């Protein structure tokens, strides 16, 4: 994966959104380890894959 500042900023903002959402609904800030664990679960990975494929199809 090619890394650049634009990608890093987009990923940082996405992770911040996840952390903000979890804090809002649970009242507790998630740890980076909790977010990492959640993001690597099969269901989440499948949802991410499906979303990316959908975005690519819409762009065609």
Give an account of the 3D structure.
Helices cover 80% and strands 0% of the residues. The longest helix is centred in the N-terminal third of the chain and has 22 residues. The mean pLDDT is 93. The chain has three helices and no strands. The protein has one domain. With 60 residues, it is mainly alpha-helical.
The helix-strand sequence is: HHH
Question: What is the CA-atom radius of gyration, in angstroms?
Answer: 14 Å
Class by SSE composition: mainly alpha
Percent of residues in helices comes to over 70%
Cα(first) to Cα(last) distance is: 22 Å
Mean pLDDT across all residues, rounded?
Answer: 93
Count of individual helical segments: 3
Count of the separate structural domains: 1
Percentage of residues in DSSP E strands: under 5%
In total, the number of strands is: 0
Write down the overall geometry.
globular
Indicate the low-confidence ranges by residue numbers.
none
Largest sheet: none
Keywords:
single chain; 60 residues; 3 helices
Ordered list of secondary-structure elements with their pairings:
Elements: H1 5-26, H2 32-39, H3 42-59
Overview in brief:
With 60 residues, the protein is mainly alpha-helical. 80% of the residues lie in helices and 0% in strands.
